[in-house]
Amino acid sequence: MSDRLSRARGAIAEAGLEALLVTNPYNRRYLSGFTGTAGWVLLSAEGAWLATDFRYWEQVGSQAPAFALHKQEGGQSEWLPGFVEALGGQKLGFEAGDMTVAAHKQLRDTIAAMPAPKRPALVQSEGLVERVRAVKDDEELLSLERAVQLGDEAFNAVADRMQPGWSELQVAWEIEKYAREHGAEAMSFATIVGGGAWGAMPHAYPRDVPIEAGKPIVIDMGVIVNGYCSDMTRTIVLGEPDAKFQEIYDIVLSAQETAEATVESGMTGGQAHMIAHNIIAEAGYGDRFGHGLGHGVGLEIHEHPRLGRTSEDVLLDGMVITVEPGIYLPGWGGIRIEDMGVLENGRFRNFTTAPKLRMVGA
Ligand code: ZN
Ligand code: ZN
Fold first, then answer.
1. What's the pLDDT band for 359 if we cut at 50, 70, 90?
2. For the chain: N or C, fewer Cβ within 10 A?
């Protein structure tokens, strides 16, 4: 935690600010360890404070011992001035990407009503803690690897039992049930199951429709362990796939494995994307790979950095990213393969072990 605070303080200083008011719940948890659903973190070069309401005063003491508790009592105009007055005259960043227009107006009004010498100067800031969060520490890597392991286990357990006739909803439920029974706190997102033509939508929601033999089935799923998300996609087929499946699967697999083998720290997210894009485009399906190659994963399922055509995010050692090219053919279906791993010594180390191309019940 102390390393997180010093890295965040470095980012605050680099942005030309004296302190940062953190309202994003993931940033709050990352910096303080506090998992409650409501609270404001204030971080300056010297101090670390956490304001929250009565429900959490005891919890803050045990989860966030490095933070001084500021008790929220009454409306914002009552508790906030005392929370920020030590920063009178200084530049206080706020998280613009996390604030509604209404919340911003309320914050501005509260600060404007403070006596001038105690009033900090509000400065819009964006993505500051998010960029710190993108590079994971050892404790986070451990949680992320455990989440991937459990996700893989849940997938394997269900893929081994799946039969034609199960509905997409049942597939999703069996995966979620296994995950929860084996220690997942929650799913990273609602499990995606897309059988046949339905899988041509990259984010196919599961339907009460039976899966069929011979058709591609896209399963995209993840579990949460210690607050950290996993993310994995496999495309499988029950019984014999058609020739199209073999053709498309090979292209996607080759794009995916080439990207994993050649992505390097120091590249931009755009450059990483193009590794896979070029392979898919050369095979004639460039316009059928319409989304980005991947994304960072951590406390949130989609985090900095972004791997996509226009991304200038620079990939760094310690970032945990997904590699997930896909090809989607309306009327036929989709194939996507997604692994998750860490950039380490300049290269991608895969966490995901779920087998690719599982021919079940052939
Ligand atoms: Zn996914
Ligand atoms: Zn993903």
1. very low
2. C
Do residues 189 and 222 touch, judged by C-beta distance below 8 A? Answer: yes
- Ligand found nearest the CA of 322: 2
Nearest Cα neighbor of 327 from 264, 270, 254, 258 is: 254
Instruction: Give bridge partners of residue 50 from the DSSP assignment.
Output: 41, 69
CA of 2 from ligand 2 middle (Å) equals 30
Residue 339 burial (CB count, 10 A): 25
28-39 confidence digits (pLDDT tens): 999 999 999 999
Please report which helix (H) or strand (E) contains residue 229, including its range.
Answer: strand 228-229
CA distance 325 to 258: 11
CA of 220 to the centre of ligand 1 (A): 5
Length of the chain: 362
232 vs 158: CA distance, rounded Å: 14
Phi then psi for residue 245, to 5 deg, are: -60, -50
Q: pTM score, two decimals?
A: 0.94
Cα torsion 8, 10, 14, 17: sign: positive
203 CA to middle of ligand 1, Å? 9
Q: How many CB atoms lie within 10 A of CB 185?
A: 13
State the amino acid at position 203 in one-letter form: H
Span 281-333, pLDDT tens digits: 999 999 999 999 999 999 999 999 999 999 999 999 999 999 999 999 999 99
Q: Which ligand is nearest to the CA of 306?
A: 2
Ordered structural domains, the chain, with CATH:
2-132 (3.40.350.10), 138-360 (3.90.230.10)
Nearest to 258 by CA among 273, 239, 269: 273
